[in-house]
Amino acid sequence: xxxxKKLNESTPGYTDRKFxxxxxxxxxxxQEFQAKQAAKQVQEEAKPLNEEYxxxxxxxxxxxxxxxxxxxxxxxxxxxxxxxxxKPAQKEVLNYVTKWLxxxxx
Length: 106
What we know:
This protein has 106 residues and is mainly alpha-helical.
């Protein structure tokens, strides 16, 4: 006979369970986890950025970003750009730049 993993008091959903309350379900545990993640994300977004390091990098840093913004605006105003292309292109550009930064800024 194989031994199966048993639930105990440290299993998620059981930590604050009082006698007589319903047993936790997968849905209730998922909902609680998602609520905690959402609260954590709100806290992280609320932290102000002081940008001290970026300011110390000088105007070249902003000039590079301006070049990216200008290239985006030129493409967006271009004769071949369809309005339906803008959102997918925006997502692609952001993913590309993020990937490039993660690879090259170490």
